[in-house]
Amino acid sequence: MKILMIAPEPFFQPRGTPFSEFYRIRCISELGHRVDLVTYPIGDDVDIRGLRIFRSPSLLGIREISIGPSAAKIPLDAALFFSAWCRLARGHYDAIHSHEEAGIMGHFFSRLYGLPHVYDMHSSLPQQLENFRFTRSRVVRAAFEWMESVVVRSADAVIAICPSLVETVRHIDPSAKVTLIENTAESHDVDKVPAAKSGELRRELGLEGKRVILYIGTFEAYQGLDMLLSAASKIAAKRDDAALLLVGGRPDQVKEQRERASNLGIGDFCRFTGQVPHDRVSSYLKLADVLVSPRSAGTNTPLKIYSYLRAGAPIVATDMYTHTQVLSPDVAMLVPPEAEPFAAAIELLLDDGEFSRRLTNAAFQLSEERYSYDRYVEKTRKVYQSLSGNGGRSG
User: Fold this and answer.
1) Which parts of the chain are beta strand (E)?
2) What span, in angstroms and rounded, lies between the C-alpha atoms of 134 and 220?
3) What pTM does this model have?
4) CATH architecture of the domain formed by 188-370
5) Which residues pair with 38 in a beta bridge?
6) pLDDT, tens only, 299-342
């Protein structure tokens, strides 16, 4: 099939939804389909067989975009809409595949050109407004609820990236054609990292002789980094054989958290790398003695959790639905989102090698049984197989 994909994100940048889009495209390509991706004029080109990238015009000098809803997305999405329309008018496509708020564009084009529409649901749009505190307007929230309902009810296939989103879809329309495809593809890159590469990285970061407590992800408020640093201060006061490594964050966010660490007296205990190339993330994962996910809000499963399961180190995560829809006490330590119990859990895993090995082995087994790459590919294949006969070529 020849697919027009619409992605209202900076592609590619090392953050949640672009990661998901990258691996979705790579999988679709492996299945023999071709993808024309229409996306923002922001981000780096990537080389995937069968992928062509078409960027919308740059408007108002916007060169970066924050995670979540923002006023800057309004002109970018307007330009994206017309760029996608131009591609449809020029090309011949077999299906439309949309992400996030571009779902409403996919709905419109699907009806206009008689093409099947796949909606890739990475989050609930109304919930994003709440999580990012974008607006308190009931009118705006109602508009997003309407938009989400229209897209879910009309799409020929909905891909949900975690169980909570499947529940959201079923609440909107119990008969919706929804498939749960967790963001597991990236996790299997962890298996390809040679031990020597992580050893070099450890020396580069000055972590020789240190037990590494590792966080990977964005530095947004809902990630719970303030609580993590508070927990780190309790650990640093008791031991000098450990260090907290934080991978990710924009420069301004890193500066803010570095200052917070300094104010807590743990400037030397913490290492900040900023954002790293996505092909190096797995090497950082292999450094870890303990992996942490301190998320404090939201219901979507963090993308990193699937990589954590395969990384070969025990996991400490907050005991919230964002984690528990994947993790259980059999594979991770789940604790309240508070500094004291979070710190205690990390220390326990640093000190109890047998318990850590038991959790680590169980986590890897869970990944093999439920989150294998073969399952990811097979689920994606079935979604596109279901589109057969649902539409024809445009133009």
Assistant:
1) 2-7, 34-39, 51-55, 95-99, 117-121, 157-160, 178-180, 211-216, 242-247, 270-274, 290-293, 315-318, 333-335
2) 14
3) 0.85
4) 3-Layer(aba) Sandwich (3.40)
5) 6, 54
6) 889 989 999 999 999 999 999 999 999 999 999 999 999 999 99
